[in-house]
Predict the structure.
Amino acid sequence: MIELYVESLKKGKNMKNLPIGIQTFRDIIQNDYLYVDKTEKIFDLVKNPKGVYFLSRPRRFGKSLLISTLNEIFEGEKELFKGLWIYKSDYSWKKHPVVRIDFSKKKAENRDDLKGFILHQLKSIANKYGVSLERDQYDEAFDELLTKLSGINKVVILIDEYDKPIIDNIENKELAVELREILKGFYTIIKACDEYIRFVFLTGVSKFSKAGVFSGLNNLKDISMDARHSSLLGITKDEMEDSFKDHIDHFAESEEVSKPELIKKITYWYNGFCFSGTCEKVFNPFSMLLLFDNVRFSNYWFESATPSFLIKLIKEKEFDLTGLDGVNISESAFSSYEIENLKIIPILFHTGYLTITKYNKERMEYTLAYPNFEVKNSMTECLAEAYSFVERELVHGYAWKLIDTLREHNFELFFDTLSVFFANIPYDLQIKKEKYYQTVFYLIFSLIGLKVEAEIKTNIGRIDAVIVDKDIYIFEFKFEGDKDQALTQIKDKKYFEKYQGKGKKIYLFGVEFADKNVGEWVVEKW
């Protein structure tokens, strides 16, 4: 055992360092950090004589690193790419002046903040190239900069987090609209200066309709859902197994599991993001880096930013969560929302909480679901906290307590624990709508199913909940009626039939919901 540990440490010393928190391509290459070679896919973009592209991806998906890589390519830094695919390609490596702006550097709190930030960035770029700007209006200065830089060579424009000023103020609609109009005026200059431009690339999380932010940039090509570029960001399974080979070997040895077994678990936890109808799946790179650095499974990507605004929006709109994990959406719906009319499903997709699992060409319809265990488990815990008002740290513990009490057949303690989720709902929110309480039940039982990694059904209106673990537990809740009615319904409709013959004990629960909480219950072993 000691020999195995020492050998594992030796192998660990040979592994490349992981670029956690490093978004600068030059730093990664010069300091010999691990880099997943995406240059062949990048070449497909930069080889075109002129391209004006937009790419939407969730946070922490490598957008800033891509911008940094494009920057080095267009500044002709060929030697930085030695050993990578593009180095041996026929790319010309001509030097171009680069206008690179990262809107995440400044939180704009008003119109003047945003205008001042843009103007400051433009003047800094002008100084870099020995150009002076006479205009003091942000849009006019942008026009002037592009015109003057074109005297050196055609200009490359790289915009990171194009939508950050809007997203930062999304709950203040009036200000968000004002900032959108400023950005619209800024981006319109790109189209007006087309003759001076070699390449344009804009990235961000959201994808507002072209009638909004990009209404003046009608030559923009949106590649966000283009199958040819679906794995431009993110890490495919092949890339993970190849680039992280030494890290996987080290992880498997330290966990004392086989390599295929470990890869299967990593895939279950972190794979599944898909951005086109072909459903080419990718891992979130942020989770991958932290996983192999810590050699421990955890909710890395989700924990880096809780979607508080989204959850608030879901509650405000009384959105039906029971259909969230497998919802159908039309192709046009992905970009049909604006600040004045925020739509939950497209936002969940663009922010990475839902992803594409299937595409129907005939109907031009996408099926969306949670991408993986990390996102589904974390999102369900967050929603359970929001609806039950039980702190998220406790939600996790109570879910496991529910599982343990079921396995021990301590049903009294099971229902006492279940009652906690309803007892914490503030009195002024205890409305009579069944839907609210049904949602809480749905979230709790979804969490149980996730944590036992077993089959679970939460079909409110048919069988309320089924948990298949070492035994099978079928629940029916009555909001108006008693426990015996609930149990009779299970038997009359023969909900248990499909679970017979599996060699497992079956427990039927009839439960009444009274006075805003779990009331009396009855159980029958079938």
User: Anything to note?
Assistant: The two ends are 48 Å apart (CA to CA). The longest strand covers residues 506-514.
